[in-house]
Amino acid sequence: MTSETTEPSSSATTAPEATTEATESADAGSVYTDGTYTETGEYTSPGGQESVTVTITLESDVVTAVDVVSNAENPNSKRYQGEFVAGIADVVVGQNIDDLSVSKVAGSSLTSGGFNAAVDAIKADAS
Length: 127
Hints:
Oligomer: single chain
Distance between the termini: 42 Å
Number of helices: 2
Order of helices and strands: EEEEEHH
């Protein structure tokens, strides 16, 4: 059985179907533009390169909604990504996007590398 114990190597790429629906922020103190942003974050698992597609809705720099789509090919990665997808909303919704640095969700530690890479790209998109 392969486990997720190696150190993640992450990078973000814009998904071909990436969308940005931004509106002017109601809070003049916001760093990021309110809206819904989608990016794909990649990471290396013991089974090879994997990715997750992350969609985040921001309002006054706070995550109001999150959706993560598993792009896994490897059976173990599918399992870990599924666990991550099931638990991520409880961890990030209601948090300031600058405070997000997910390390492990529902037993999945490597998927967080792809998630964090996608969040970094979303922050750049929303700036």
